Every structure is written in C-alpha cells, then in structure tokens.
Amino acid sequence: MLTVREFARVSGLGECCIRSLVRVTGFPAVKNGRKYMIHRQAADRWLAEQATGAGSCRTLV
Questions:
Q1: CA distance 29 to 18
Q2: Rounded to an integer, what distance in angstroms lies between the CA atom of residue 7 and that of residue 18?
Q3: What distance, in Å, lies between the first and last C-alpha atoms of the chain?
C-alpha cells in the first residue's frame, strides 16, 4: 500500500492526477483518516485496463 505521493513517484503520474483518480469508482484506493492508500499492483492493473479499454469505465476523471 502506497500513499498518493509514493504512488505518484513510482507511476510517473502527478500527485494531482492521483488525487483525482482515488475518487474514481473502481480505482483501488482506500481512505485511512485523511490519507488515501493505494494498492500498487491493483492500481497498475486498473490503469492498464483503462488504457486498453478493457475496463468498464472508459473515462478516468
């Protein structure tokens, strides 16, 4: 599990983009108090599915 900042660093996406993604239905993130925690492998799979159109939601944000 990674914070928004950590996931932004490893994914190459910006923190603002990740903060938007954590609010998208189906994105693998959980809110822990005021912080969002992101499951790295699940998020990588989710992003890949969205990029190929295999996911149920074509719109990221």
A1: 10
A2: 8
A3: 22
